[in-house]
Amino acid sequence: MIKEGDLVFLYCDEKRNYLVRAGGPSLHTDKGVLAIKEIVGKSFGQALETNLGIPFFILKPTLHEMVMKVNRQTQILYPKDIGIILTQANIFPGAKVIEAGIGSGALTSALANFIRPGGKVYSYERNEDFLKNAKKNLEKNGLSDWVEFNHLEVTSEFPQKEADFIMIDIGSPWELIDAAHKSLKGGCRLASICPTYEQLTKTVFSLEEKGFVNIETMEVLVRKILVRRGKTRPEQRMPSHTGWLVFGTKTI
Amino acid sequence: MIKEGDLVFLYCDEKRNYLVRAGGPSLHTDKGVLAIKEIVGKSFGQALETNLGIPFFILKPTLHEMVMKVNRQTQILYPKDIGIILTQANIFPGAKVIEAGIGSGALTSALANFIRPGGKVYSYERNEDFLKNAKKNLEKNGLSDWVEFNHLEVTSEFPQKEADFIMIDIGSPWELIDAAHKSLKGGCRLASICPTYEQLTKTVFSLEEKGFVNIETMEVLVRKILVRRGKTRPEQRMPSHTGWLVFGTKTI
Amino acid sequence: MIKEGDLVFLYCDEKRNYLVRAGGPSLHTDKGVLAIKEIVGKSFGQALETNLGIPFFILKPTLHEMVMKVNRQTQILYPKDIGIILTQANIFPGAKVIEAGIGSGALTSALANFIRPGGKVYSYERNEDFLKNAKKNLEKNGLSDWVEFNHLEVTSEFPQKEADFIMIDIGSPWELIDAAHKSLKGGCRLASICPTYEQLTKTVFSLEEKGFVNIETMEVLVRKILVRRGKTRPEQRMPSHTGWLVFGTKTI
Amino acid sequence: MIKEGDLVFLYCDEKRNYLVRAGGPSLHTDKGVLAIKEIVGKSFGQALETNLGIPFFILKPTLHEMVMKVNRQTQILYPKDIGIILTQANIFPGAKVIEAGIGSGALTSALANFIRPGGKVYSYERNEDFLKNAKKNLEKNGLSDWVEFNHLEVTSEFPQKEADFIMIDIGSPWELIDAAHKSLKGGCRLASICPTYEQLTKTVFSLEEKGFVNIETMEVLVRKILVRRGKTRPEQRMPSHTGWLVFGTKTI
Questions:
Q1: Which of A120, A212, C26, D9 is 20 to 30 A from A206, comparing alpha carbons?
Q2: What is the average pLDDT across C110-131?
Q3: For residue C208, what pLDDT is reported?
Q4: Predicted ipTM?
Q5: C-alpha–C-alpha distance, residues A58 and A43, integer Å
Q6: Cβ of B126: how many Cβ atoms within 10 Å?
Q7: Which residues lie below 8 Å from residue B216, measured CB to CB, with a gap of 6+?
Q8: 3-state helix, strand, coil in chain A (%, to 5)
Q9: Spatial contact of B9 and B60, defined as CB atoms under 8 Å apart
């Protein structure tokens, strides 16, 4: 049974879907009004009808929704890129993670989800508005307990040491390679995302100079396929670039 | 300090790298012999030299290595596809997961890693050789404690109920949609991978008939970029198809 | 020197560009009015300024503009797909080509351009409005002399025989495989475009049954890269599907 | 009826196919011996059997075969990239084309095919071995009459002026932008292919400095789909990079 305050994903179709807290204010949609307070007491998988009788299904939010539905004050990391980070780095329940540049808290939500219950994400952000917004997003996603929010522009050193994974998501990643090197455990990985080719090469060369090995750069493309009787085909337009993901492993 | 039996990733370059247990037998490579017993007592990030003086770095294995280095008796799920599953489904520390078709234990390793410490993966496999091999792979990866290995061909029902996530990775996924529906929590997601269009359409239509919603199908492509001074370019050949990933959410 | 009636491509930027006949009526743009009659007497490569002083360059139209700027009453074949057809089929100056389904005349323009001066494109279209529109597009592109426009729904046979290349661009390509076989030279190729997987498989199986060999199916993706100082990156969204191209060669 | 010396494409399957001159020496394959002299007098579309009774079909070569089967002494331009050039530039029967860097004559074959009968391709190559090899390839393809082969390293100027299209396919394309500008008709396009990012950015910036407009950069990907009853899927590995194509139009 869904309780007041539970996070639910209300799904009508690909374009009409919402991430809300059960018991919150009513939601006005082009398919009618959704009485969000009536979700309390229902079960996941049931439908909530609008006043016009259109069903919205009450679903368990996945990481995909938590990431895509953050209130955005910045570019976010997309699930396609987050997925690759989850497999390419040392992320596990209990991991100690440092993140430079919290942005809107999209990746932070994913990291917090998977380092639970014994781990922690130490996030650094120099822009106070971004940090506040990211914190709200993490709170909405029910994951803020596993994040330490620091309003600080790191330049030479992070307070934490012996991190299992460090993510650098700022405009000039190469400026933090040295600081990251000091805080990363030997044999563990650092990741960064670079939207432009110039950022990419500069970041990779900095990693090489600092002795990182197994440096890998990749881009991820996801194409949806629309499966319909007699009319199955890929989508006609797709996202074709977010950024290149860079990974490197610290040696000592 | 690395102890006897610790899993380590020995990395020389993109083609020469190994996943081994510290203290095991020596390894013969084209760059000389690696005395694996000498890893014990060293630290992650240090190098182990072959008898010819070539350094192999002692790195912390990530999920990527655990997946790619399983002993393969079947096709495996690749990290690119596993990454998307991790964001598209309800996977978190403590989750109860069912997997039909363990294959070589590649995805199983990823699921086990992320549902720790309180969760469990219930795996079903009708081929006993595959199951034994997968179990060995999970043991090598240090993740077998979070997996229940069942030598059983499920047809109508899984013994477990109220699963947070169900993965169907068999040749005819549509045959298990009904069983999966019985065992999945309302509002939670099922995933499958279909190498061919015929499997894909049949699986999607079965999900629709059973009332699943938010049915999504996608393919994931990862292209590596080789960053080198004055010679930066994408790799010249890449994997262009593994299978289409299908997701659907149970309604009640 | 540009003469009255010459086809010119007026280019300001990626979003503001027009295909016009020199000497035609003035053109109102958000950058001001272009006096098209003043193009007469200028040279290709020069600029024509709007009444607000914004330059539009007077360029030679390429096939890309002729194709993309047709007045569209139907889906068109895109340059990316046309380019592959030009290399995969027997198209050359003097070729005899049959086209079933003229659509808006996009591919027809490309075929007419390359079979000049001795060849001919025999186009069949059952929809009279489409045919009239396509004819106007070919006339604008200055290529209608090399096309025979037939308002006819072919079912069992084309009047022409011994064609070097046949293109089938209709909703049910498999219905014309037999007719195409009768009209194609031995050892020459047929092409079709199939937007859906169901059309694709049906078309390929029909080709197989009719004894075609070297049957190939492919999709073409083009991604633009934005090269800018310090900010070079691929475009963020791209077309991800038009249709699959099918080719097969007639045996006797 | 096929005559002695006619170019034919002998096709058994995707891996066993040859481009030969009718009447030439016998060909030894893993499916038996092909008596090439017996092709004379047969018709296109018929089969030639090996001494083991395996049929090879006698097909009309398309540009694809002429390009892919050149004797390679260099990297070649692939049909996917040639196709885009054919639509993005001013190529037509009668066109005057300049090519800097003939390589193995792959693109040259395509250009020669489409500028016939009244046009000409003026090719420049500083490496005499490459030039000789390219000439042989063009002769084999029956297209050498439309090409002028020049053993010359152009630095400041091409002898020809008023070209409809110029292709620069050398390692440092930016060094010939100035020469190309002198020889290109106003309003016409230049193309180049750049395998690396460093070449790409340098070439684009040179074009900008020289006043070229409508500068476009793109990459082309072609993925084959294997259509088989009940087993339809894309190929599992594909070419993922040849080079970026750059286009720009001369202004005056």
A1: A120
A2: 97
A3: 98
A4: 0.97
A5: 8
A6: 16
A7: A224, B88, B246, B247, B248
A8: 30, 35, 40
A9: yes
Which residues pair with residue B224 across a beta bridge?
A218
The reported pTM is 0.96
Chain A closest-CA separation from residue C140 CA (Å): 29
Return residues 72-91 of B near A (CB < 8 Å). 79-80, 82-91
Q: Does B225 touch chain C (CB under 8 A)?
A: no
Answer for the pair A206, A246: CB distance below 8 angstroms, yes or no: no
- List chain A residues with CB under 8 Å of D197: 197, 201
Quickly count: other Cβ atoms within 10 Å of residue C28's Cβ.
Answer: 11
Buried b (16+ CB within 10 A) or exposed e, A33-53: ebebeebbebebbbbbebeee
Which amino acid type is present at position D250? K
Instruction: Identify the structural domains of chain D with CATH numbers, from first to last.
Output: 7-61 (3.10.330.20), 65-249 (3.40.50.150)
pLDDT digits (tens, 9 = 90+) for A229-250: 999 999 999 999 999 999 999 9
B58 CA: distance to closest CA in chain D (Å): 31
Helix (H, G, I), strand (E, B), or coil: what is residue C124? strand
Chain A residues with CB under 8 Å of B218 CB are 222-225
Scanning A185-204 for CB atoms below 8 A from D yields 197, 201
D227 close to A (CB below 8 A): no
Please tell me whether residue B185 adopts helix, strand or coil conformation: strand
The DSSP string of D196-207 is: SHHHHHHHHHHH
CA atoms of D89 and C6, how far apart (whole Å): 18
Which residues lie below 8 Å from residue B232, measured CB to CB, with a gap of 6+?
A197, A200, A201, B225, B226, D196, D197, D198
Looking at the partner chain, which of D118, D227, D250 has a beta carbon nearest the beta carbon of C200?
A: D227
Residues of chain D found within 8 Å of residue C224, distances taken between Cβ atoms:
216-218
Residue/partner pairs of B131-137 with CB below 8 Å, 24 or more apart: B131/B102, B133/B71, B133/B73, B133/B104, B133/B105, B134/B70, B134/B102, B134/B103, B134/B104, B134/B105, B134/B108, B135/B105, B136/B71, B137/B70, B137/B71, B137/B104, B137/B105, B137/B106, B137/B109
C29 to chain B, any CB pair closer than 8 A? The answer is: no
Q: How far apart are the first and last CA of chain A?
A: 52
The type of residue at A60 is: K
Residues of B in Cβ contact (< 8 Å) with C197 = 197, 201
Please report the DSSP string for B119-139 in residue order: -EEEEEES-HHHHHHHHHHHH
pLDDT digits (tens, 9 = 90+) for D164-196: 999 999 999 999 999 999 999 999 999 999 999
Q: Both ends of chain B: CA-CA distance in Å?
A: 52
| Side-chain half-sphere exposure of A87, counting CA atoms within 13 A | 28
DSSP string, B59-108: E---HHHHHHTSPPSS----HHHHHHHHHHS---TT-EEEEE--TTSHHH
Closest by CA to A55, choosing from B252, B247, B185, B210, is: B252
Beta strands in D141-212 (DSSP E): 147-151, 163-168, 184-194
Beta strand D213-226 with D184-194 is unpaired
- Find tokens 């351009």 and name the residue: C113
- Maximal CA-CA distance, chain D: 65
Interval A75-109: pLDDT, tens = 999 999 999 999 999 999 999 999 999 999 999 99
Q: What are the tokens at D212?
A: 């070229």
Residues of B whose CB is below 8 A from C201: 197
Strand order in the sheet with D55-59: D17-21, D7-11, D55-59, D47-49
Q: Are D125 and D102 in contact (CB under 8 A)?
A: yes
pLDDT at position B214 is 98
Q: CB under 8 Å to C245, separation ≥6 — which residues?
A: C81, C84, C85, C88, C191, C192, C193, C217, C218, C219, C220
